[in-house]
Amino acid sequence: MSPSRLYTASVTPPLPLSSFNVSSNFCTEENVSECILYINQELLSLCFPPIFQNSDSISDLDAVVALNNIYDLLQLHRRAVGMMEELEVEQLKSSSDLHYQHLTNSRLKDQLELSKKENMRLHERERQLETNVKTLQNCLKDTKEEVQRLQGIIASRATQYNHDIKRREREHNRVKERLNQLLIAKKENKQGMEVLNYIGRSDGRRCLWKTGKTESRHEGDMYKTLLNEFDNRQRELMVENTELKKVLQQVKREMVGVLNSKKMSQEEEKQSNDMDQTNSDEDELLKRHHEMSCDHAREKLTNSIRQQWRKLKHHVERLDSQASMVQDGDSEEVISKQLHEEEMERLKLEIQQCKEFIQTQQQLLQQQLNTPCDEETAAVLNDSYMLEEKERLKEEWKVFEEQRKNFEMERRNFTEAAIRLGHERKCFEDDRAMWIKHQFLNTTFADQMKPQSRMADEFSKHSGREEKLISISGKVSKSHL
Amino acid sequence: MNFSEVFKQSNQLCKVSPDGKYLATCVQYRLVVRDFSSLQIVHLYTCLDQVMHMEWSSDSLFILCAMYKRGLVQVWSLEQPDWHCKIDEGSIGLVSSRWSPDGRHILNTTEFSLRVTVWSLCTKAVSYIKYPKACQKGVDFSADGRYMALAERRECKDYISVFVCDDWHLLRHFESETQDLSGLEWSPNGCVLAVWDSCLEYKILLYSLDGRLLSSYSAYEWSLGIKSVAWSPSSQFLAVGSYDEKVRILNHITWKKITEFEHPATIMNTKAVVFKEVEKRPVVGSEDLSIHQLTVDNSLFSTQSKYEITQLPAQVPVIKPDPERANPKIGISALAFSADNRFLATKNDNMPQSLWVWDMQRLSLLAVLEQTAPVRCFVWDPRRPRLALCTGNTKVYLWSPAGCVSVNVPVEGSFQVQSLFWHCSGSSLVLLSKEHICLCYVEAEEEK
Fold this sequence. Notes:
The structure holds 2 protein chains of 2 kinds. By secondary structure, chain A is mainly α. In chain A, about 80% of the residues lie in helices and about 0% in strands. The longest helix of chain A has about 120 residues, at about 65-185. Chain B has 3 domains: about 1-125, Methylamine Dehydrogenase, Chain H; about 130-260, YVTN repeat-like/Quinoprotein amine dehydrogenase (Methylamine Dehydrogenase, Chain H, 7 Propeller), CATH 2.130.10; about 265-280 and about 305-315 and about 330-410, no CATH class. In chain B, about 0% of the residues lie in helices and about 50% in strands. Chain B is built from 1 helix and 40 strands. In chain B, strands 28-27-33-32-31-30 form a 6-stranded mixed beta sheet, with no helix packed on it. Chain B has a 4-stranded antiparallel beta sheet with strand order 1-40-39-38, with no helix packed on it. Chains A and B meet through α4, β1 and α5 of A and β9 of B. Chain B: InterPro entries: Centrosome-WD_assoc, WD40/YVTN_repeat-like_dom_sf, WD40_repeat_dom_sf, WD40_rpt. Chain B: This is WD repeat-containing protein WRAP73.
């Protein structure tokens, strides 16, 4: 129940006292008996003696009882009112207490919030101070280390200085001793050079006098040397510069080429076209200003290269991301990473296999070369193989030799025979000629007819013999061949 | 690889003539000149005292022998053995003596660096230069021999004088911006003079030939600074090694640092190759113990060694220097460029057994050689990219881009190689032990 409601409830008087004076609507002249009955019942219920006995007469009203009852009721009423008042007061008190408690509660809550915040703040501050302390401690440690290091340095410097001082002091003492020696020395050794004869200068020229001209010449020589050096260096740097510029140009051109060869979106193409245009312009410009190498051209070159590089980088990044997402057989230019890796693995395996193969080959080769572990057995083995061959060859050779000898002999025989034959033939020819001559001379004209046939016979005999001889010589010559 | 026989020398004085034809050695007070190809003695000279310094003249016709104790310098002629020249510095003393580039003047520095006397062998003229500075490298001649730079110290300030070697005319004299000049060096093209400060301040100044300050470079303050400096043969780079174990490379156009080479104790670089020298104990099998083997082959008594490639990451042995001592053994003490400008060899003093080789084209570490003893000396071949080094034992080591090899010097007794240098043709090495020399003829090809 809200306190205001109780309060209003308690404000309203329980019963308007004034209403008792005026007859209320409860009892009228008509319903007296009912009222009396009702009141009786009520009184009975409240443990009061009844004012009306259960009789037949209606107006048998016990006045004393009624008055007592009324008095009791009044007392009750008063007590009740008093109690109610007390209760009301108590209620007021408690509600105000409650209110007060609520107020204090909220106040305390606020206070609690505030103090919590304060607490957090203090915690935070504490943490900060702790970190501060830590950093300061670290600083302190560092500073201590620094101090130690510097102390070490100071110590080493001090030892160095001491060492130096001692050395100088020793030298100083030596000088003093030497001075003393010189002071008391009787004979002073003069400095001097003895030489058999003076020799010529190494370059063959004569020594020159020291004049202002030589001095200026020396100065001139010195500056010439320096200038030469500067010139050389500048030349080298120029050469290097042009080389680098060429390389940059080439790189740029290649980048442009690479970027253009890929399928790009229209706007990129357009951009690249524009870039190409400007690039070609720049190329022209650079070629013209090549020797002058003005800053502007240089800057343009480097800027354009940077731009191209950025584009290339983007492109490559895009390709990379594409490759990681793309499946097989998407585009012939874009190979998926997986395929690429597989390819690499395969190639690596192949290389490994080839290497192993080569190694085994080498090993085998080595073995081949090294197998004769013992020289002698190897030699023996070699020899044994050779021996067979040798033997075989020897035999064949022998056979050939024999045949050759035979042939030689036969040839000799045949030549002898041929010679003999030649001789014989010659003799025979001579004989024949003689015989014919004789015959001819001997036979007269008379005997011409007769001995002609005989001559013919003789002639035919001789010719037959001759034929035989010829055939033999022919055979001989044939076999001789 | 062939080795010659062993000859005596004293004071590590053994020099090849600039034309490569002769080899001069000093044995106590004698000067022995040999023909380089046949090693026959060509001339023999006797000096008045033990020779402390010996130098060939640039035209290979004269040799100077300096005897510091007696303050004497004697000059000998190869063409005329009976020609003699003696320079006596008298009571003023002698601390150093050197030829001028034309081979006709001798520069003597007196004791306490009081002055430099220029003696002429052509004329009677004598020049004096006052207030020379006694420092690590106070005098340098340009490569073409035309100019000499000399560091001077007057009234607690450093000055640099540039002389024309022709007639010793003072060309330029200017104040140097160093606190305490420690050294100066001409660039190989003769146009730039690098001047560096002592180790207490990291400062390197670059002066032009005419005395203008071109640039100044300082990597850091307060800690110990520059320890060594080297020009590349093309004058393109200037390598500065410092006590913080780093080498900084400056370029000749802007004189700014283009890179720095670090020498960490753990090598992580995957492109570098780490060669570690491993000694093999000789295993004596019963079949080897023949008298023949023992007398001919020294292998029983000297350990063989070979190089092994170590897996990366590799640890480099570090020796911590004593912090109490001055000039601590830490930092890059030696730098050398190869003749073709492609490689740089460095040695870090707190990793004394290692030698680092850098590729100048890629500006990165190429190889690290880890020896069994501290590296004593390393020299590049004047013709090829080939590095010879020695560590004081009986071996000489060669590195080339193809690989490394370790060769035992096959000399009876033991020949402890203390230092070495190449012949100007790059075909042979001269090895020096404490009292002997030995020549090593090297082929052009390298085996791995």
